[in-house]
Design brief:
257 residues, eight-stranded mixed β-sheet, six-stranded mixed β-sheet, 23% strand
Length: 257
Amino acid sequence: MSYKIVFFDIDGTLVNEEKQIPQDTIDAIRELKSTGVEIAIATGRAPYFFKPISELLGIDSYVSLNGAYVVHKGSVLFERPIPREHLETLVAQAGQHGHPLVFEGGESYYADTDSHPHMLDSVNSLRIELPGHDPEYWKKTNIYQAFLHCEAHEEELYDGKLPGLRLVRWHKTAMDVLSEGGSKALGIEAMLQHLGIAPEEAAAFGDGLNDKEMLGVVGLGIAMGNSHPELLPHADYVTAHVDEGGIRQGLQHAGLL
């Protein structure tokens, strides 16, 4: 199969645990670009969380916020904000349990607290600037995703309490909150349709729980060697660790380098 587009997750895929892009990955992406194959980022991050990465790699197309905000070469082609009534329920439930929230819009993000340790721990792990403080931000603009901060044993508090919403854990103290049915796969499908590329002509690299749907919707789903164990059954191929040439090895397996 000749693949026409490749989607790359960021954390644990393009960047390592230190949030650095290995030089071999940079070189491999540059070589891939020279072949004329379309390249896109597919991440749970908001665009303002990965701007330095996209600029360094020269990638201006992306599926962000777990598929809720999709851009191709600088132009927005798909948006799926969380309905306001679902956010209202989320705010009420999180407030009841004292769990802080972070609201992610298309251009900026704000938290309903400025000092909770769970929020500080999760956001600082991304090596990005802390959010502003505005508990009412979700009422003022489109929100595409939120962070709900609680530990794994507290997840059951939300069972059946957040209709229309889906929770995906990405940190020991934080979960992504997105609209039910939302995933990177939804955003990828929107981009493929826009470009006239069939799903079987696409490849994708990922390592986390929010990459399950993405690896399943493309023709070649590649899991990093450092992937979460639960992702591996969803992959067509398991490449090397992010710090051990995993991107290059995967691209070579795909016949792209």
